[in-house]
Amino acid sequence: MSTGIILGLGLITIVISFYIVLNIPLWLLMWEKRKRENLIKEKKYHQWAYSSDDIMNKILKFCIYCLYIYGAFVFLTEVYLRFS
User: Fold this and answer.
1) Which pLDDT value is given to residue 23?
2) pLDDT tens digits, residue range 69-84?
3) HSE (CB half, 13 Å, CA atoms) of 3?
4) Counting Cβ atoms within 10 Å, is residue 7 exposed (0-12), middle (13-18) or buried (19+)?
5) How far apart are the first and last CA of the chain?
6) What's the predicted TM-score (pTM) here?
7) Distance between CA atoms of 84 and 73, rounded to whole angstroms?
8) Domain that holds residue 55
9) Torsion angle in degrees (nearest 10) through CA of 61, 66, 67, 72
10) Phi, psi at residue 72, to the nearest 5°?
11) Does 38 share its domain with 54?
């Protein structure tokens, strides 16, 4: 290995080590705050009820609404053509 690669890897290792060591107190504070917020917040429903409305369910709801709208459109056009 060349000297540049060794020095680069050493510098990257030092930067990553300092980043982790200097941010551990912040991460611990955020962890404690998150634990306290979950205990203090009174929830009316189970956890699955809060996390059940994710993007997949929203897309599914949108598709179902589109089907109902299309069905209503077809029904109204057939009624209009039948009685006009």
Assistant:
1) 87
2) 999 999 999 999 998 8
3) 0
4) exposed
5) 86
6) 0.41
7) 16
8) 46-84
9) 130
10) -65, -40
11) no
